Amino acid sequence: MQTVSGLPEAFSPESYDMIVVGAGYAGAVCARRLAETAGFRVAVLERRDHIAGNAFDFVNDEGILVHRYGPHIYHTYNEDVHGFLSRFTKWTDYQHRVLADIDGTLMPVPFNHQSLLLAFGETRGEELYRKLISTFGADKKVPIMELRKKNDPDLIEVADYVYKNVFLFYTMKQWGQTPDEIDPSITGRVPIYIGDDDRYFPQAPFQGMPRHGYTALFENLLDHDRIDVFLNVDAREIFEITETTVKVLGRVYGGEIVYTGPLDELFGLDLGALPYRTLDMRFETLDIDRFQPVATVNYTTSEDFTRITEFKNMTGQIVPDKTTIMREYPGPYAAGTGQTPYYAIIDSKNRELYEQYAERVQNLTNFHPVGRLAEYRYYDMDAVTRSALDLSDEIIAYHA
């Protein structure tokens, strides 16, 4: 792998079989798969000054490994995805646990047996827990909508408590919406876990953290002699999309293009901007060994930030008498301001606008949008890896 900043004067698109825009999960997985399986020469163009996309991590001045763009917690149910990524990293045995600060009391989320006891008291909490077991069975994750469907006062009491204290205020902060604007389908998916397992992903068979960090994983992923990485390159400045072709540096490009950036920005927002929520992440290093009992504490009934992450609790690093925490403040995203678009605001109107942009490239047989920005959807890391592997296999089959 050759990594350089900017495009050299001698850069020739025609010398590459594929151009990948973006060095996050979608782009890096496609680059590796096509380079080693199909023998493609691949140029990866990355707008930022680093690889790994939003999974990028680095060691700060205090020697603590932090995630620049917020906590990334690896978990998957997909054996193929886990097998592929495990070629490029060893994993720690980290099991993610989240607590919610509800009026000053820390309770496990998803809401579980222990949460019920803390919220309703030992006697009443145990009664409600037994009712949940008799209705749904043990060790089940059940959306609160299912509790309401039973039309049982006890189950409705649990659903209402979780909705009000775990979901409502937190979601209003996260999405900038009032209760009546929040899609009922989102409300209904808020789960409780009928059991004592306090892990955030209790049923995911593969979970952990990359032993040497996410950036190291991506360095290994892109380390192939048929892959070149060009940082600080904005594809919008060198791409021109027509109805039938993609031009790169003014010349029609005949190879494959994997595009992982925002489609609306590729077209200069000429139909309007696709709305996102962004996050203002504020880091603070404290002269203490530990700030909170778990990696993530959600503030669901108070504060103007949504959560605090403590990185040492995720990575297992031992850095005596120092710890770095990060608070997340959600807000509206504005293109061209240097902000990062994190969460697509997906409703029928915004989806229709996305489809108008997507129609402009759907007849370009060599242009492939993939990933959360290019597809205007939310992806976990394992899901975008799966999508990139599937796309890679389609391209390989086409050229077979």
Identify the notable features of this structure and list them briefly.
23% strand, Rossmann fold, single chain, 400 residues
Task: Kindly describe this structure.
There is one protein chain. The chain is 31% helix and 23% strand. With 400 residues, it is of the alpha/beta class. The chain has 3 domains: 2-51 and 222-270 and 341-399, Rossmann fold (3-Layer(aba) Sandwich); 98-198, no CATH class; 276-332, no CATH class. Strands 8-7-18-19-20-17-21 form a 7-stranded mixed sheet. The model has no long low-confidence stretch (mean pLDDT 94). It is an enzyme of class 5 (isomerase).
Give the structure's gist in a few sentences:
By secondary structure, the chain is α/β, with parallel strands linked by helices. It is 31% helix and 23% strand.
How are the SSEs ordered, and which strands pair?
Layout: E1 2-5, E2 18-21, H1 25-37, E3 42-45, E4 57-59, E5 65-67, E6 74-76, H2 79-85, E7 98-102, E8 105-109, H3 113-120, H4 122-136, E9 140-143, H5 144-149, H6 153-175, H7 184-188, E10 191-194, E11 206-208, H8 214-221, E12 227-231, E13 239-241, E14 246-248, E15 251-252, E16 256-259, H9 263-266, E17 276-286, E18 296-299, E19 307-310, H10 312-315, E20 323-332, E21 343-344, H11 348-359, E22 367-369, H12 381-399
Parallel strand pairs: 1-12, 2-3, 2-16, 3-12, 7-18, 16-22
Antiparallel strand pairs: 4-5, 6-11, 7-8, 9-10, 13-14, 14-15, 17-20, 17-21, 18-19, 19-20
EC number: 5.4.99.9
Organism: Coriobacterium glomerans (strain ATCC 49209 / DSM 20642 / JCM 10262 / PW2)
Protein name: UDP-galactopyranose mutase
